[in-house]
Design brief:
By secondary structure, the protein is α/β, with parallel strands linked by helices. The protein contains 20 helices and 13 strands. The strands form 3 sheets. Strands 1, 2, 3, 4, 7 and 13 form a 6-stranded mixed β-sheet that branches. The protein has a 5-stranded mixed β-sheet with strand order 10-9-11-8-12. Strand 1 (about 20-25), helix 2 and strand 2 form a beta-alpha-beta unit. The longest helix has 23 residues, at about 430-450.
C-alpha cells in the first residue's frame, strides 16, 4: 500500500510548467471562503502548482459525485475533502494514495507530521497506514448559559463530567423554575453523541479492533452502554429535562433555543463556536450560519461559556469529527505530489491559525498553541477562549482508542438518527429501538462486505 513511487515529489519541484490540481470540498460560509483564501495565497507563493477549489454541495452530494467519477478516472479531483465517516470507503475506492507514501517520498515532511496531535493521526490510521494528508478537526463541546445556572444555584466554576451529573444539573435547573426556560438542555438528535460516548468509554461499535485491523463485519452496537445512553436520552426528554431537535431539522433551532434562554445547555460541535459567538455579538450573518436565515430576536451579551462534553466516565473523551484530505490518483501523473505540496502548505502554522480563527476548525499541530496570534485570541476573546477549551479537549483525547472505522458509516449514522428519532418522538421503547438499529446496521455491514468483496 505504501509506495513512494506514487508520490514523485521531486518531479513537481523540477517541472517547468505548473501542475494544475482540482480540490473538491463541501464547506459553506466562512469555511469555504477561508479555504479559498488559503488556496489563493498558496498559488501566489510559488509557480509549480496551481490549485482550483471547487464546492460540491453537501458532504452527501460530494460523496455521490466522487462515487460516480470512479467509473471515469479523468473526472476525479486530485484532492478530495470528505467527511470523517468516509475513511474505509476512501481506502476501498482503490484510487487514494495514502499520506504515508508521500511521507516516504518526502522525508522533510516528518517534522510536520511528528508535530500533529497523536489523536488526529491515530483517527485516520488504519492497519498502521496514515491515509489522509491533512485534517479539518472538530469535536463536541457543551455550551452553557452561566446566568441561568447561577439562578438555579448551580456552580459555574466547574461543570458536569458525566451524563449522570448532567442530568443532576438539569434537575436543579428545572426545579428553580427560571422564567422563560422550557427545558434545561437542548440537543439535536444525531448519531455522533452516541459514538463519542461509546468511544470515550473505550467501547467498540464493530469488530476487528473497531475496524482498524481489518474490515468491520460485525455490529457491536447492542451493548450495555448503548442501552445506558438511550435510557438517559429518553428519560431526559420524558422528564422535561431536554428538548430534542429532530435530526431532519436543517435550521439553527438548537442555537436559537440557547440564545433565547429557553434552554440553558447545548451539546454541539466546536465548529458552532463562530455561530454562537456571532449571535452573542449581534453580528450574525447568513454567511456565518451557512446561508441559513434567522427569524428571531437575538439576545446579545449573554454570559455563555464552553466546556468539555460530559461523557460516560469523564468529560472531553470521545472521537474527533470534521473532514480529511485525501490525495487521488488521476490521469495527471503529477497530481498526487502536487496535491501533497498544497497539503504541506496548509499544515504550516500560520495557515492552521487562519483555519482556526476564521473557519472554527481546531489546529492540529502541537506547536500551534505557541503561535502569538493564536495565543492572543485564545486568551483575550470570547470565541478564542471557547476554541481553546475545545483544543485542550482535542489534545487530551486517547490516541489508543480513536473511534470506529466503518465501511457503511453514513448508512450507520442514518440508521442511528432514525432510531433516536423513534425514541424521542414516536414512543418507541429503548430495547426495541436498539434491536432494530443493530439489525439494520448489521445488514449494512453485510451489504458493504458483499459490495467490496471483503
Amino acid at each position: 500500500v505504501v509506495d513512494a513511487a506514487d508520490c514523485p515529489v521531486k518531479e513537481v519541484s523540477s517541472s517547468t510548467a505548473p501542475t494544475n490540481i482540482t480540490v473538491w470540498h463541501a464547506y459553506v460560509g466562512l469555511q469555504a471562503s477561508t479555504l479559498q483564501q488559503i488556496a489563493d495565497a498558496f498559488n501566489a507563493s510559488q509557480d509549480k502548482v496551481k490549485v482550483d477549489v471547487q464546492a460540491q454541495g453537501t458532504y452527501e452530494e460530494l460523496l455521490k459525485k466522487f462515487q460516480d467519477a470512479l467509473a471515469n478516472p479523468a473526472s476525479l479531483p486530485d484532492l478530495v475533502l470528505t467527511e470523517d465517516t468516509t475513511t474505509q470507503f476512501m481506502i476501498d475506492s482503490g484510487v487514494v494514495v495514502p499520506a504515508a507514501s508521500c511521507r516516504e517520498a518526502d522525508p522533510g515532511s516528518d517534522a510536520t507530521y511528528d508535530d500533529v496531535l497523536p489523536a488526529v493521526t491515530s483517527a485516520y490510521t488504519v492497519d498502521d497506514v496514515l491515509w489522509p494528508g491533512a485534517f479539518s478537526v472538530s469535536m463536541p463541546v457543551m455550551y452553557v448559559n452561566k446566568a441561568i445556572l447561577a439562578q438555579a444555584d448551580v456552580p459555574t466554576d466547574s461543570y458536569p463530567q458525566t451524563i449522570e451529573e448532567l442530568r443532576s444539573v438539569a434537575e436543579k435547573i428545572k426545579a428553580a423554575n427560571v422564567p422563560g426556560l422550557k427545558t434545561p438542555l437542548v440537543i439535536k438528535v444525531d448519531s455522533w453523541f452516541v459514538e463519542n460516548w461509546l468511544t470515550g468509554a473505550g467501547k467498540p461499535l464493530v469488530d476487528n479492533d473497531n475496524g482498524r485491523s481489518g474490515l468491520a463485519t460485525e455490529s457491536e452496537l447492542a451493548q450495555p452502554d448503548t442501552t445506558r445512553i438511550y435510557e438517559w436520552f429518553k428519560s431526559m426528554i420524558d422528564d422535561g429535562l431536554a428538548t430534542a431537535i429532530p435530526s431532519s431539522s436543517t435550521g439553527v433551532d438548537e442555537y436559537l433555543a440557547l440564545n433565547a434562554k429557553s434552554s440553558a445547555i447545548l451539546i454541539q460541535t466546536s465548529t458552532a463556536i463562530s455561530t454562537l459567538a456571532a449571535l452573542l455579538e449581534g453580528s450574525v450573518s447568513k454567511e456565518q450560519l451557512g446561508g441559513v436565515g434567522i427569524d428571531a430576536t437575538i439576545n446579545t451579551g449573554l454570559d455563555i461559556d464552553v466546556a468539555l462534553q460530559p461523557g460516560l466516565e469523564e468529560a472531553g473523551q470521545g472521537q474527533i469529527g470534521g473532514s480529511a484530505w485525501y490525495m487521488v490518483k488521476t490521469d495527471e501523473k503529477l497530481g498526487v505530489p502536487a496535491a501533497w505540496q498544497f497539503i504541506r502548505y496548509f499544515l504550516q502554522t500560520p495557515n492552521q491559525v487562519t483555519w482556526t480563527l476564521q473557519g472554527s476548525y481546531l489546529p492540529v499541530l502541537k506547536s500551534a498553541q505557541n503561535d502569538p496570534t493564536l495565543q492572543k485570541e485564545f486568551t483575550t476573546t470570547t470565541k478564542g477562549k471557547w476554541l481553546n477549551t475545545a483544543y485542550q479537549g482535542l489534545k487530551n483525547l486517547n490516541p489508543d482508542f480513536p473511534g470506529p472505522v466503518i465501511g457503511p458509516f453514513n448508512e450507520f449514522r442514518a440508521i442511528m438518527r432514525t432510531s433516536l428519532d423513534s425514541v424521542a418522538f414516536n414512543g418507541v421503547g429503548v430495547k426495541d429501538a436498539i434491536k432494530k438499529a443493530d439489525t439494520d446496521f448489521q445488514a449494512s455491514l453485510d451489504q458493504y462486505k458483499t459490495d467490496t468483496g471483503g
